[in-house]
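Chain A, query sequence.
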Amino acid sequence: MGVDPGLVDTGFGVLEAGPGRLVVVDAGVVSSAAGHPLEARLNAIHDAVRRLIQACEPGLLVVEDLYTEYRFPRTAILMGHARGVIYLAARQCGVSVLALTASEVKRAVTGNGAAGKSQMQRGVQTLLGLAELPRPSHVADALGLALTGMSRVTGRLPGPRGASAAVAWRAAAEGEASGYMGSRAERGRS
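Chain A, predicted structure.
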C-alpha cells in the first residue's frame, strides 16, 4: 500500500500481485477540511488510514519520505505531522513501513528523478496497464510508491504484460493524456 501524505489530501493506492501483473485493488484520496483545527485534521487522516489498512491488510506500507526546501520549513513540519499519524496507524495495525524519497519513486516509475506530475501519472498508467490516467496526482504518487516498494521487495519493477521499465519511461516522456481513475470495479492492490 502506497501513501502520499498530505495535510489536505493524502493519496493512497493498494496493489496486489495477480497472475503476471499487478492489480489496483483500491486507490483514492483521504481529505481533511482546511478550516478545521490541526488536531482534528490529523485525527481524520489517522482514522481513515487505519481503516484502509485494516480493510486492505497490506504486507507493507510505503510512505513518501519527508522533503523540504529551505524556503518552506513550515510545510515540512506540517507534512511531518501527517506522516506521524500515518506511521502510528501502521504500527497500531502491525504493518511495516518503508519510506522512499520522491526522486527515487520518480526515477523508478519514469526514469527521471525530477519528473513532473503528468509524467508520473503516465508512467503509473503504463506500468499498471490502466485504461485511464490515475487522478488526482496524489493517487498516481501513491500508486508509484506502492510500485516502487514492491520493486524493492521483489527486486524488479513490474509492468503490464511483461512491459519493461523502459517502455513505461518512454510513455511517461511522451506527454500528457487525460482521464481519471474510474470506479473501484474498473481498477485493481500493494
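The radius of gyration is 16 Å. The helical segments are 38-56, 73-92, 102-110, 117-128, 137-154, 165-173.
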